[in-house]
Amino acid sequence: MRTKLFVLAGAGLLLSAGAAFADDNTGSIGLLSGGVPERNAVASTGQAPMPGEGPMSSAKPVAYQDPKRGYMLVAPPGARFVEREGGDQITIQSRKGFAINLQTGDANPAITTEQMFSKLEAGYLGEGKPWSIKSSQSDAVIAGLPAIVGTYDAGSTRTKVVIARGQKTDFVFMFFAPASHFEQLQTEFDWVMTSFRPAAIERPAEAPTPIAENPTPAPAPLRAEATPSAAPAGRPAPVMSEIPDIVAADMQVFAESGYGYRVSYPMEWQLEKVSAFTNVFSGKQGTPAYDAIVSVQNVKPHGIATADAVTDAAFNDLKTTLTQQAVAVDIVGEKAVTYAKGGLILAGRQFVASYEHNGRRFRKWALVLPRPDGEVAHIWSYTAPVEQFDTYRPVAEQMLNSLKIEG
Questions:
Q1: What letter would DSSP give residue 388?
Q2: What is the spatial distance between Cα 370 and Cα 380, in angstroms, rounded to a whole number?
């Protein structure tokens, strides 16, 4: 058993499809963020640039919306779009050493995505062909579309293939990277896939909801405590919630009733309930990721009912608790942020801090968002020793991108 001082932080929450990009001075956490708060946000262009425009060394992401099929995609900083002849294929090129191809075509209901994979492998997998080994295959959901994900090796190169089926369009993504740096560069691919937004017409129609004979039971009351806890102790046995949706093969989901949110986290990480109000996600003991901690905590300040007041109270209490329990605390980068996802728009606050605890220097990145009813605040955090903070930050950002607050 040990005590951990959590870094409370946030970045990269996804905007709903079609939402405008964030301005530098708004602090919006949107489709194009994906860095620590002190980094510049992405300037609003008003219109997505054409593929291939701008230098490859651009420090800002570049958005592209396909004029024919209506989907949206974002290239990360340092990358650019190249549109291939014919208009049904685009490529993202990066100086970091990876490339992403996206091909589109009319969906053919007579051929399943599984059969599409088989056809692809017939031409590419085997002796004398581009791919020599197939290392994995799994079902997934990509931007609301059913999909299959496969990974292939050929010498020093590894390729991940994603085939997603829309109502009108089949989307085939191919991510190419050196095998020696594949895991590291895969965070860039995950970032791009998180930005993918198909046109509304592509999403499958929802199945009709049957009428229940008995009334639906009331949802479990939201679990929340009065004040933030900056240093909860102990690592009880992991408690897993039921996973309601198909997710990527390397991720799993926490979506337990009574917490008011759902969030994905790496399959090799563990979930621990350090209290009835706080969930902690980190690498397993004995691995380097054990000291990289993402936590989500529910707080309900006493006697406060408005969203702004709840956010301010939880935010200020969190900073106060941190300064009381840690040494040499340096808080920087305080900033207003906006959560815009699933039809919800919530105004929150975030900060970055460094501090010493038990003789070790940590970095803390904290984000506080109110619930829609304004009585409870969610505190999302990422904490790690300063020397590991940047190493596991992409994982934390991916988890934050998956965070969905239930209305």
A1: H
A2: 11
Q: Which CATH superfamily is domain 62-197 in?
A: Mog1/PsbP, alpha/beta/alpha sandwich (3.40.1000.10)
How far apart are alpha carbons 393 and 12 in whole angstroms? 11
* Cα 148–Cα 153–Cα 157 angle in degrees, nearest 5: 115
Kindly list the distances between the CA atom of residue 248 and the CA atoms of 112, 194, 233, 391, in Å, as whole numbers in the listed order.
19, 12, 31, 21
Separation CA 160–CA 134 (nearest Å) = 10
The model's pLDDT over 348-368, given as tens digits with 9 standing for 90+, comes to 999 999 999 888 999 999 999
Could you tell me which residue, 154 or 30, shows the higher pLDDT? Answer: 154
Residue 213, both tokens: 């004979």
Which residue from 84, 80, 76 is spatially nearest to 49, judged by alpha carbons?
80
pLDDT tens-place string over residues 323-348:
888 889 999 878 888 888 877 888 99
* Cβ 365 vs Cβ 302: under 8 Å: no
Give me 39's structure tokens.
């980094």
Q: What letter does residue 373 receive in the DSSP assignment?
A: T
CATH of domain 1-41+220-407: 3.40.1000.10
To 5 degrees, how large is the angle CA 343–CA 347–CA 352? 125
- pTM: predicted TM-score of the whole model, two decimal places: 0.48
The secondary structure element, H or E, covering residue 344 is: strand 344-357
* Contacts (Cβ under 8 Å, ≥6 apart) of 144: 198, 203, 204
List CB contacts of 250: < 8 A, sequence separation 6 or more: 266, 267, 268
CB 8 within 8 A of CB 387: no
Judge contact between 329 and 353, C-beta under 8 A.
yes
- Backbone torsions φ then ψ of 122, nearest 5 degrees: -60, -30
What pLDDT is stored for residue 384 in this prediction?
92
Q: How far apart are CA 371 and CA 261, in angstroms?
A: 10
Q: In terms of pLDDT, which residue wins out, 109 or 205? A: 109
CA angle 247–251–253, rounded 5-degree value: 70
Contacts of 183 (CB under 8 A, 6+ apart): none
- Confirm if 355 and 322 have CB atoms less than 8 A apart: yes
Domain with CATH 3.40.1000.10 in the chain: 1-41+220-407, 62-197
